[in-house]
Amino acid sequence: MSDPRPIGFFDSGVGGLTVLREAQRRLPGESTIYIGDSARHPYGTRSDAEVLDYAIELADALVARDVKAIVIACNTATSVALAHLRQRHPAIPFIGVVRPGAAAAVLATRTGRIGVIATEATVRSGAYFAAIKDQNPAVQVEARAASALVPLIEAGDLSSPQLVEAVRSTLATFKGLPAAAKIDTLLLGCTHFPLIRNLIASELGESIAVVDSAAAAAATLQEVISVNHLDAPGSTRGTAADPGAAGHSAPARAEVLPVHQLFTTGAVAGFSGLADRLFGDRVMEVEQISVRR
User: Fold this and answer.
1) Cα 111 to chain center, whole Å?
2) CB burial of residue 142 (10 Å; 0-12, 13-18, 19+)
3) Catalytic residue among 74, 117, 171, 284
4) Domain map of the chain by residue range?
5) Rounded to whole angstroms, how far apart are CA atoms 18 and 20?
6) Cβ(4)–Cβ(31) under 8 Å?
7) Is 190 a catalytic residue?
């Protein structure tokens, strides 16, 4: 049994493209629909009520497009809206980015001291602190707001002196911790931050592991699709009538190609430029859609 419907993704802007890229790498046979709410970014400095309202609108838009699962590719929206959206659309699996990232960080730490950089709203929610403590109550967590990085990255700035200084300022508190409290793992608690992962890792030094919540969320999505038997035709499992990668052989037939759609609520040019840098020759056309302001 297979399900050809697409997987939906939404984020406050371009950051969730890091999750989409990892998901397409892990699930190459799946179709996807992504909505980046660039017109209303950043979410991290908004109230919880605003973020919830936006998340509901974007999730409803994906449900209207008949998606089979939804990835909230935004840490702030995950922290604020995940439970509400699961109740609103109980028939659709929702995957957030907080718990997968927290689990990956707990597995990575050797000393039991983890740092988290995220938006103000995510830090305020305590979502990462709670998720990490759920994995291992003995782990020490140092969370810092880094909302200043988001608008720079959203604008396509991945290397300017201004960005470098903002990263240095953000990480200074971790580097200045006394030896007994120094972290050995930093969790990127915003899906925008993997876009500057190399810059962050370089500033921290080789002794600190940098964990990417985007990659962890994509791994969770892969498991959810498999466990719920939502795989696209010919993608991961199969029968003689519908062969998958591990299925039986069958007579030759036309290949089922995945379809990928990118939407932004903001300017197409900037969004498209960063998408091109992320996906390379896998060019996807970007369309603009309207939202409530």
Assistant:
1) 26
2) middle
3) 74
4) 7-96+215-288, 98-213
5) 5
6) yes
7) yes
CATH of domain 98-213: 3.40.50.1860
Q: Is residue 18 left, alpha or beta, with left meaning phi > 0 and alpha meaning psi from -120 to 50?
A: alpha
DSSP 162: H
- In this structure, whether the domain defined by 7-96+215-288 belongs to CATH 3.40.50.1860 is answered with yes
Query: Looking at 17, 23, 116, 190, which residue is catalytic?
Result: 190
Residue 147 among the catalytic residues: no
Provide the residue-wise pLDDT of the chain in tens; the chain has 293 residues: 689 999 999 999 999 999 999 999 999 999 999 999 999 989 999 999 999 999 999 999 999 999 999 999 999 999 999 999 999 999 999 999 999 999 999 999 999 999 999 999 999 999 999 999 999 999 999 999 998 999 999 888 999 999 999 999 999 989 888 988 899 999 999 999 999 999 999 999 989 999 988 889 999 999 999 999 999 987 655 444 555 555 555 444 445 789 999 999 999 998 998 888 888 767 678 999 998 86
Examine domains 7-96+215-288 and 98-213 and report if their fold is the same.
yes
Which run of H or E residues covers position 204? helix 197-204
Q: How far apart are CA 139 and CA 134, in angstroms?
A: 10
Q: CA-to-CA distance for 55 and 10, rounded, in angstroms? A: 8
CB count within 10 Å of CB 87 equals: 9
pTM of the model: 0.89
Residue 39 neighbours by CB under 8 Å, 6+ apart: 264, 265, 266, 291, 293
